[in-house]
């Protein structure tokens, strides 16, 4: 908690009278959403595009626990409305076999339970954990496939331009980069979509924890996009450079994977530096309004 923030009033947990209804609600939640939750956990573990959920989910619950309960009046009618909507969303997505909507219905049901037992102020107090849980849900395949191809072409163009800048003969055809003696394919896995998704999630987290104004948070998330795109283009360039001057094996296997992780760390450092700069600028401009910044402590 910063010196300029108003203290958050933390209330005691649920009374004994509410224990049984809470237990029954929890059991109903597990029964209704155990299947999409199991599929989501499987994707977190097996799908590299969704692996950021393994980080975001425990962080979200930790932030909610650190924030605690705030003074709020239960909104029973609104909570029931959200719960009914979640059940309908769950049923409709099951019929349509649409995983994203099915998983998102869990977030809607969770918000409904919070509204029913704790009220709107509690939902507002937990906005960052709820947002992180939403970001932990992988995007639909239709969206990822639509985004991947333009990102592949952009990374290919940027990588080819950097190779030409280093006086390496290049012929670019779509997502295929031809250099003397070698051909590089910028595949969907190298499109940068994975790092972009993870970097956007981290930008939301940093913005919620470190920044206290809406414009600075929005700017941080917006800047995460070009940072991820440029870093991925640099990765394509480095792959071609090392393949051409060092060893063709540098473009595959362990070395290629290590190169990707190192450059992702660079992007994390850059987004962290941008967040620190924005926090410094907003502190110079004006002190944070009481209770505006998410308090993780």
Annotation keywords:
single chain, 297 residues, three-stranded antiparallel sheet, elongated
Any overview of this molecule?
By secondary structure, the chain is mainly α. It has two domains: 16-138, no CATH class; 142-285, no CATH class. Helices cover 70% and strands 4% of the residues. It has ten helices and three strands, in the order αααααααβββααα. A three-stranded antiparallel sheet has the order 1-2-3, covered by helices on one side. A hairpin with a 2-residue loop joins strand 2 and strand 3 (182-185). The longest helix has 33 residues, at 253-285. The radius of gyration is 23 Å and the shape is elongated. The protein starts with 15 loop residues before the first helix and ends in a 12-residue tail after the last helix.
Summarize this entry quickly.
The chain has 297 residues and is mainly alpha-helical.
Give a topology summary.
Layout: H1 16-46, H2 53-67, H3 76-96, H4 99-117, H5 120-125, H6 127-135, H7 141-165, E1 171-173, E2 176-179, E3 182-185, H8 193-210, H9 214-245, H10 253-285
Antiparallel strand pairs: 1-2, 2-3
Helix pairs in contact: 1-4, 2-6, 3-4, 6-8, 7-9, 8-9, 8-10, 9-10
């Amino acid at each position: 908690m910063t010196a300029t923030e108003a203290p958050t009033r933390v209330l005691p947990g649920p009374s004994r009278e509410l224990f049984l209804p809470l237990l029954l609600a929890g059991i109903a939640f597990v029964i209704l959403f155990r299947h999409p939750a199991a599929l989501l956990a499987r994707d977190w573990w097996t799908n590299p595009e969704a692996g950021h959920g393994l980080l975001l989910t425990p962080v979200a619950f930790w932030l909610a626990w650190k924030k605690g309960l705030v003074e709020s009046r239960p909104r029973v009618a609104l909570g029931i409305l959200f719960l009914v909507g979640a059940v309908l969303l769950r049923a409709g997505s099951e019929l349509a076999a649409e995983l994203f909507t099915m998983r998102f219905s869990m977030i809607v049901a969770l918000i409904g339970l919070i509204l029913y037992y704790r009220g709107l102020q509690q939902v507002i107090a937990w906005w960052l954990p709820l947002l992180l849980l939403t970001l932990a849900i992988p995007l639909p395949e239709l969206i990822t496939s639509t985004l991947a191809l333009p990102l592949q072409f952009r990374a290919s163009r940027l990588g080819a331009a950097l190779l030409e800048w280093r006086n390496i003969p290049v012929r670019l055809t779509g997502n295929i980069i031809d250099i003397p003696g070698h051909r590089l394919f910028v595949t969907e896995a190298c499109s940068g979509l994975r790092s972009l998704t993870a970097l956007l999630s981290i930008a939301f987290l940093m913005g919620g924890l470190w920044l206290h104004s809406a414009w600075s948070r929005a700017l941080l998330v917006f800047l995460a996009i070009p940072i991820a795109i440029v870093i991925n283009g640099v990765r394509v360039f480095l792959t071609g450079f090392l393949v051409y001057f060092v060893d063709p094996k540098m473009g595959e296997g362990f070395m290629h994977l290590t190169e990707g992780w190192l450059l992702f760390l660079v992007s994390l450092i850059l987004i962290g530096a941008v967040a620190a700069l924005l926090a410094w600028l907003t502190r110079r401009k004006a002190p944070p309004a009481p209770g505006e910044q998410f308090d993780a402590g």
